[in-house]
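Sync notes, pocket subgroup
Present: LS, DG
LS reminded everyone that the earlier model was apo-only. Rerun requested with magnesium ion included. Inputs:
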Amino acid sequence: MQVVAAWPGADPEFGAVPLGFSGPRGVRCLLGPRGGKDEEQILESSGYFVTFEGIEGAGKSTQIASTRSYLAARSIEAVVVREPGGTEVGDRVRDILLSPLKEPLAPLAELLLFCASRHQLVTTVIRPALAAGHVVLCDRFADSSRAYQGFGRGLPLDVIEQVNNVATGGLEPDLTIVLDVPPERGLNRVELRSGAAPGDRFETEALDFHRRVREGFLQLAREAPRRVAVVDAGRPAEQVTRAVLELIEHGIRRRLGT
Ligand SMILES: Nc1ncnc2c1ncn2[C@@H]1O[C@H](COP(=O)(O)OP(=O)(O)OP(=O)(O)O)[C@@H](O)[C@H]1O
Ligand SMILES: [Mg+2]
C-alpha cells in the first residue's frame, strides 16, 4: 500500500512539500518539488515517534486529535497513545496517579509508577507500532517525568534519567513538541473544560509547582534543541496545529537528511 499525503506544504500558506507514507515496513516518504525530483526513501529505523508535552491545559489532547485527523484524512492511521495509561495495566496505574489520595505519594514512588506504565506502553504498544512502520503520537512521555518529578517535585534529574532509561530501554522520541502556555492560562482552560468536576492530583497543585514544571520543559528544550521544539500554544488552536504539522514534516525531512 502506498499513500501520498498532501502535506500542509501543498498549501502555499504552509510553504512545505507533499509527503507520503506507506506501511507496513517503514514510514515511506515521497519527496516532491523541494527535492527537485520525485524521490522515495524509507526511514532507516521504521516508524516515526512524536511526543506531545506541556503543562495541564496546554492543548496536548487537542493538538494530537487535530494531527491524527489530518493524517487520517490522508489515509495515514497514526497510533495514538497517552501517558500514564495506554494499556490495561497503565490505565490502572493512571487511576492511582491522578485520583486524589489520602496519603501523600512519595515523589520516587510517583516516578516509579509513571515508569511502570511507560515500560508497559513502550514494550506492548509503541515499539511494535514503530517496528511496523507507524507514526506514533504519544500524549506525554519521558520528558514529563523530568519536568514534573524533577523540576516540579525536586527529585534529582540523574535518578530520573536512570529510571526513565530502564523504562524505555533507551527509546527516544524522534520529535518532542512542547506546547507552551503560562500556567494561569492552562489551568483556566482546564477549569473551563471540567466545569464543576474536581481537578486531578496534578491539576490541584499550587501555581508555583506548575511554573516550575513549565520552566522544566523549556529547560529541556534548550538542552535538546534537535529533538525538542517549543510551540507557543497560547494562540488559537488552528494556528498551533499549523505549527505542529510543520514541525512533524520538518522532523521527518531531517531524519531523511533532505
Ligand atoms: N489553543 C487553544 N486556545 C484555546 N483553548 C484551547 C486551545 N487548545 C485547547 N484548548 C481548550 O483548552 C482545554 C484544554 O485543552 P486540552 O485538553 O487539549 O489540553 P491538555 O494539554 O490535553 O490538558 P491535560 O494536561 O489536562 O490533558 C480544552 O477544553 C480545549 O478545547
Ligand atoms: Mg489531555
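DG: Residues 107-131 form the longest helix (25 residues).
LS: The first strand starts at residue 3 and ends at 5.
Action: DG to write up.
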